[in-house]
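Researcher: Here's the sequence for the chain we discussed earlier.
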Amino acid sequence: MNRLPYVQEYRDRHGRLRRYFRRPGSRRIPLPGRPGSQEFMTAYNTAQAGYVVREIRTAGKSHSAPGSLSAAIAAYYTDNSFTGELATETQKARRTILERFRNEHGNKPIALIERVHIAKILGEKTPAASLNWLTAIRGLMQFVVKVGMRKDDPTAGIERAKPPKTEGHHSWTEDEIAQYEAKHPIGSVPRLAMTLVLYTALRRSDIVTLGPQHVRNGIITVRPQKTRRTTGKTLQIPVHPALAEILARTPTQHLTFLTTEVGEPFRPPGLSSKFRVWCDEAGLPHCSAHGLRKAQCRRLAEAGCSVHEIAAISGHNTLSEIRRYTEAVEQARLAKAAMARLRREPISNESV
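Model: Thanks. This is the structure I predict for it:
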């Protein structure tokens, strides 16, 4: 059986096989359920995240003066507003921002950080970077006010910068999908990865944990990582015939469909890096895994699906992004119909 990192097994006094998570120097954390199950993977991912948080907290204790920004960040890492309400990937992204802020200003008293300081730092960042930075710092300051380390939130009233509107990740065209398939044949990991993302529209954080245990009676059942702590909804996605064929012709003996060259499950950043390589090999440097998720939403819109039907597959928590797909498809359909009508109805001279 393929073993996840830091997962150990033992038999209890009744002879039952038990599993737990343990990294060097840390305590054992029980892992319930069968390996690969939703219950098991949730406990495993939580244990992984918790270990990183303890590492940061322990490091912070050695140099965090009471009342300092550093002490506030260390305390924030242990609060449920951070560990319980934010997805694992979100925690990692915010820790990156907070640790950089901590390294630059950690010794300053948290009570003396003013709005003008926040505004100055924001003014030195690009719109996209300032949006992420303000979101992370606002979460910290709201926690600080909640626990009484200061009376006010210096980020209050500061509006988030609006990055210039872009199309975001490129949405794959049908020709690009065919080009990728021509490079990576059925039975290969790159082809399996592309097909999994395309026909489930799942995010990378869910694709890396997806395995045979999630498929029952032609239905993929998964609870998305991103919304696990918010909506908590579970998705049930019918297996498309094209995906069923790829799964049948790509044997796996592991708990996850996708594994690295050494048989270990991918982590989300690792899968993104490999996908970058696979796309480059296919001559598609502008394509990405997330663009396949967008391509599936486009396909569903072109098939006449409503925004709610598309969200039932993609798991979007809000419908604004999905509406862009349906509106674009509807615009193209109406324009085509209008031009077809114009060809059928010649314009008379009297109407000019």
